Amino acid sequence: MNVRDRLIVALDLPSVAAAEALVTRLGDSVSFYKIGYQLAFAGGLSFAETLIRADKRVFLDLKLHDIGNTVAKGVESVAKLGATFLTVHAYPQTMHAAVDARKGSSLRILAVTVLTSYDDADLAAAGYDFTVPELVAERAAQARDIGVDGLVCSAEEAARLRSIASAGMVLVTPGIRPAGAEKGDQTRIMTPAAAISAGADHLVVGRPILEAPDPKAAAEAIVAEIAGATR
Ligand code: C5P
Question: Which CATH number is 30's domain given?
Fold first, then answer.
């Protein structure tokens, strides 16, 4: 894999105009962008097509979960857009539908096992009789058996999930902070080099690039750190 493709910049921005300005500023330094709820519901899906036409890769972080037929139809539409990654919640019915519907396209499905904002008490309140690590491991194994293409996980979980995931599955990790960067609301963070060493394939980085005085220099520094860790 090209080192530059391992960095995914989260376009957590309120408008297409703001996203366009950032993408222009980052230029050739960044090849892969993540679009989540905020931008997707503010014109971001047509902006995704613009990015794809400009030879960028797009990760649509829409965390789908619905009846199988509805998930399948949604995934077919996302595949037509030309996106590279799409997230779904790691429920077996949802994962089966998504994996079947992406066949024949270049779209890859990533499963979100347990949201990182959840603790054991949140799971109990939602009716689960599992701890967070137990449910993460259970759902990762189900994702592997169903043929899901990858998992979104914290860098801390990456080493453990590497041993559960199949060899071809990609691990995509947010919560990345270069040494000295602001943590923001992230609690479990790792540097780019440590995350790569822990087994992450792609790093999702938002604020350390979006809020940097020189976003392009911040992105280049992270790409260099990834390159150093993969040598
Ligand atoms: O700004 P920051 O680098 O913290 O952004 C991280 C990105 O990764 C955000 O788009 C956030 O929604 C996403 N994410 C996360 N933690 C997860 C899953 C996704 O921070 N567990």
Answer: 3.20.20.70
